Amino acid sequence: MHNKPVGYHLIYGVLKLHALLPLRVLYLFSDMLFVLVYHLVRYRRKMVRRNLTNSFPDKSKKEILTIEKEFYHHFCDYFFETIKLLHISDEEMRQRMKFSGMDYVVADAMKDNKSCIMYLGHYGNWEWVTSIGLHIPKDVVTAQIYQLISSKSFDEIFLKIRTRFKSLNIERKETMRRIIKLRNDGEQLLFGFISDQRPPRYYDQYWTKFLNQDTLTLTGTERIARKAKFSVVYLDIEKTKRGHYLGTASLITSDASKTAEFAITEMYMRKLEQTILRQPAYYLWTHNRWKFAKKKEVINNTEQ
Question: Are 86 and 19 in contact (CB under 8 A)?
Answer without folding.
Answer: yes
